[in-house]
């Protein structure tokens, strides 16, 4: 498929370059339905290369998510699947109403979730621990009012643990004194090399976690390092939730990983992701919804709907956009309540 893939790469790169012009006239016709003077905060956290089967929340034999398991208001969705095992496709689908690979080309003429929230009167912020690469993710993130790429001024070989996101997030929340706020955090999560994903002063929970090469002979060490990245994600999400809960306003958070990973799991000896034929390990991903105590008190019906759908099979690219809009009371001609986990209209597709 080399010639077809070359043609497709050039075509999509050209579409990305002209994305701003192609989507310039697009509007969600978004408007708020919650009271005009309401104070609300919603956060979307995009995970990287996290697979559900290594989360303690999903029955993994190691307790890699002890903090989230003790956090009130967290709902984990058992059967969540991504439609792409690559970041450059899965993340744009999470950030837009384009819900499947079948109509992926529509993404180049539509704006993303930041534009919908901005049209509804929300202040918007995008904080990324990934590097700009001129992709659609960069353009969609730049639709936010406040855009922070943490690695903009760092050398290419520099690594930053996801904990670095907390400083600008704290500044953003410290400056919040009412109104509506929407934040997206794009993490580097569990991307290989796993050992680089957690701070150097971090005391790893699972050892030995150092290896000289990625091979099936070193699988135990690879899994130890990978599980440490999940434990680090657990700590990060728990801190983000605590920071948002401290604002004492109706609030919600969605965490979705872009895709999973192979770690020499079976006789095929597959490793990493983005393979032409995805495996279960690459597409079964963690998907979590958290709501503050104030939100659960003010919108109990939506909270009950979220809980009632936790064991249903879902496509993350299908439900994320619509659930965030429905939870936050943002109405739009592009909102499909049958794809919103907080709606009684939700349907499995």
Sum up the structure in keywords.
globular, 15% strand, 349 residues, 32% helix, alpha/beta, 7-stranded mixed β-sheet
H-E order: HHEEHEEHHEHEHEHEEEHEHHEHE
Total of helices: 12
Low-confidence runs of at least 5 consecutive residues? none
Beta-strand content: 5-15%
Amount of helix? 25-40%
Radius of gyration: 19 Å
Instruction: Characterize the main sheet.
Output: 7 strands, mixed
* Number of extended strands: 13
* Overall geometry: globular
Mean pLDDT comes to 95
What strand line-up does the widest sheet have? 3-11-8-2-7-5-6
What is the end-to-end distance? Answer: 31 Å
- Tell me the structural class: alpha/beta
In short:
With 349 residues, this protein is an alpha/beta fold.
Explain how this protein is built.
- The protein is an alpha/beta fold.
- Helix content is 32%, strand content 15%.
- The protein contains 12 helices and 13 strands.
- The strands form 4 sheets. The chain has a 7-stranded mixed β-sheet, with helices on both faces.
- Helix 6 (136-141) links the parallel strand 5 (123-128) and strand 6.
- The radius of gyration is 19 Å and the shape is globular.
